[in-house]
């Protein structure tokens, strides 16, 4: 009886080891340093640029551009407070927003701002670029979601938001829907064609991140709640609930239509299969909270920014990462 029990225990341990989630290590680690070199800069925004370069920004008010090899090539100065988000426009310019209530558009090659303006009446936490590149949306610590013309930064429209603490905004891939969420846990979907809006009770706690799948049929929400939710946009119903605890989630990114990368306060990035709701890979290397994620679908690379004062690049190509072989462009 005893030998049978220990045999069963050994079998169980073997199965557990076999089923362990594969671990992925970073391909490149970029140390973020302030221009004086006296202390680290904490990046809380990251974005892919052409030719495999990345831009990162955060608490020291500077935007740094790094080459594909991880070398610092450009520093953009203008913001006077914490920079919260970066997004690349189709024309190659970079947009940034931050706690100084300012929106900047940057010519990266020239290393200078092409336009800037104060938006709203409070810190700005997030921005999203319309797929046509003609307008952008931004939200923050105020009660309006604002649309801005990318050519001249003029405000073109604004919408009521569910709460005064909006943390995330995202356009659907076809540009027809605009999603926003924040402190009250509601996901608000704006129909930009019909002019209507509707709410999904996505969580009971603050939502910090919203992202559409490339196909546009799914939208994911995550934040302080116990689960990351993936929603059917048309029906407004959850199609996947992924455990988040004990971490708070600060960043999510779809890796194609079938996988979601989730990063938060446990210092790790977890990749989930949406259909099976199973964890398929864990990306380990950061030693601080994951603050931002950006996925390059053409090259299967994920960039992450963290409170450990680094940006890390992860190679998720199917031929390199067997656990993510179903990834598609």
What can you tell me about this protein's structure?
- The protein starts with a helix and ends in a 14-residue tail after the last strand.
- 5% of the residues lie in helices and 51% in strands.
- The protein has a five-stranded mixed β-sheet, with no helix packed on it. It has a four-stranded antiparallel β-sheet with strand order 2-29-28-27, with no helix packed on it. A four-stranded antiparallel β-sheet has the order 3-4-5-6, with no helix packed on it.
- The chain is mainly beta.
Task: Write a brief structural summary.
The chain has 329 residues and is mainly beta. The chain contains one helix and 29 strands. The protein has a single domain (21-324), classed as 7 Propeller (Methylamine Dehydrogenase, Chain H), CATH 2.130.10.
Task: Please describe the topology of this protein.
Elements: H1 2-18, E1 23-24, E2 28-31, E3 43-48, E4 54-58, E5 62-66, E6 72-77, E7 83-88, E8 94-98, E9 102-107, E10 112-118, E11 124-129, E12 135-140, E13 144-149, E14 155-160, E15 166-171, E16 177-182, E17 186-191, E18 197-201, E19 207-212, E20 218-223, E21 227-232, E22 237-243, E23 249-255, E24 259-264, E25 269-273, E26 278-283, E27 290-296, E28 301-306, E29 310-315
Parallel strand pairs: 1-26
Antiparallel strand pairs: 2-29, 3-4, 4-5, 5-6, 7-8, 8-9, 9-10, 11-12, 12-13, 13-14, 15-16, 16-17, 17-18, 19-20, 20-21, 21-22, 23-24, 24-25, 25-26, 27-28, 28-29
What are the secondary-structure elements, in order, as H or E? Answer: HEEEEEEEEEEEEEEEEEEEEEEEEEEEEE
Q: Termini, distance in Å? A: 53 Å
| Helix percentage range | under 10%
Class per helix and strand makeup: mainly beta
What is the CATH topology descriptor? Answer: Methylamine Dehydrogenase, Chain H
Question: Per DSSP, what share of the residues sits in E-state strands of 2 or more residues?
Answer: over 45%
Largest sheet: 5 strands, mixed
The DSSP helix count reads 1
Q: Which stretches are low in confidence, meaning pLDDT under 50 for 5 or more residues running? A: 5-18
Spatial strand order of the main sheet: 1-26-25-24-23
CATH class: Mainly Beta
Tell me the domain tally.
1
CATH architecture designation: 7 Propeller
Strands, count: 29
* Average pLDDT reading: 90
Cα-atom Rg, whole angstroms?
Answer: 20 Å
